[in-house]
Amino acid sequence: AITQELIPHLEKTFRLAAQPSARIVEGASTGGWEALALQLHYPDFFGGAWVFNPDPIDFTRYALSDVYKDENFFSTEVTPWVSAERSMLRNREGQVTWTARQVAQFEAVLGTKGRSNYQLDIWQATHGPVGADGYPALLFDKKTGVIDRKVADYMRERGFDLTEYTRRNWATLGPKLSGKLHFFSGEQDEFFLNLGVYKFEEMLAQMDNPRADASFAYGRPKKGHNWHLTDFAQMVRDMAAHVASSAAPSVPSVPVDASPAVLAQRQLAAYNARDLEAFLAVYSDDVEIHAFPGRLLYKGKDRMRERYAKLFAESPRLHCELVHRTVHGNVVIDQERVTGVRGDGVIEASAVYTIAGGRIARVDFVQ
Questions:
Q1: Model-level pTM greater than 0.90?
Q2: Residue 306, C-beta contacts closer than 8 angstroms, at least 6 positions apart
Q3: Which of 23, 36, 154, 262 fits as disulfide partner to 258, beta carbons 3.0 to 4.6 Å?
Q4: Calculated CA dihedral for residues 46, 48, 54, 57, nearest 10 degrees
């Protein structure tokens, strides 16, 4: 309904660009899982996903349970004689406030047959099969915590475990996801949802042919379930820059003398593509490159062309990850992590881009 009815209707009714590059999905918590699922299952339809603190995207971290290997959702064996209760909810200093057993008991009071409309029941109703009685088949027994492996296997086989789905289909998905996935998670997520994001990042790090190109930002220290890297206004600016940098030729493109954020994003996208001409296009002819605080390294686009042509040629795996961006008027400050520099080199730095006359006129690198 969303991809075949709602969005096409909106694009016909309003002045919208009916192109994948203009369709961005964003969500947090349950919406975060949904945003990622939409981008993965419809990679040709959507142009990017901003995924905040998502519900479990790796079912080896379904809260604190590995539903494929663990026998019990409520407890874990410490020794043959000792078991420990699994946590389900904590505060930002790590204090357990609810165990998995307590959440299940609470849901059982609210409604039978998975109808509590609370956390675990929502997940199971979404991910699991329909039982013989017409209600959701539960992943685990509400009284004992014993996991139903058939339900777990159903969830995995039908692509609800998004890490496993991506791994299994990477040959097809990989080329379609380059630069589209952006993850944000607090390291002290109250529901332990950061663990699934870590697992997704670990999976992508193992992918080759093609190499994964996704960004991950983690809130530290003590950032919880509602953490965002920036405010919503900056998030929308980042999305706009992403749309502008990936727009198809048939979509009216934003002129080069557009907003500072768009210019910064365009040069970043061209840098990661090692597209020298596109990279240089947003710089002024007499651009100045400085090392903070004000030491001139070189001046002019011709010098820049020489340096970056050599860098791009010697660094086939070159990639710049945007860790954080701040915009102040005509100045853009990017915190960056660059990998693949002439082999395995890694550079962490901040770049301060000053815009003048619709071009980047000055760059100050802070290391």
A1: no
A2: none
A3: 262
A4: 70
Per-residue model confidence as pLDDT tens digits over 217-253: 999 899 999 999 888 888 888 888 888 777 655 444 4
- The confidence score (pLDDT) of residue 248 equals 54
Give yes or no for residue 286 having a pLDDT over 60: yes
346 within 8 A of 313, measured Cβ to Cβ = no
CA atoms within 13 A on the CB side of 340: 17
SS (H, E, C) the chain: CHHHHHHHHHHHHCCCCCCHHHCEEEEECHHHHHHHHHHHHCCCCCCEEEEECCCCCCHHHECCECCCCCCECCEEEEECCEEEECEEEECCCCCEEEEHHHHHHHHHHHCCCCCCCCHHHHHHHHHCCECCCCCECCCECCCCCEECHHHHHHHHHCCCCHHHHHHHCHHHHHHHHCCCEEEEEECCCCCCCHHHHHHHHHHHHCCCCCCCCEEEEEECCCCCCCCCCCCHHHHHHHHHHHHHHHCCCCCCCCCCCCCHHHHHHHHHHHHHHCCHHHHHCCEEEEEEEEECCCEEEEECHHHHHHHHHHHHHHCCCCEEEEEEEEEECCEEEEEEEEEEECCCEEEEEEEEEEEECCEEEEEEEEC
Residue 180 has pLDDT above 60, yes or no: yes
Per-residue pLDDT band at 183 (split at 50, 70, 90): very high
pLDDT at 44 over 60: yes
What's the whole-number mean pLDDT along residues 146-170?
A: 97
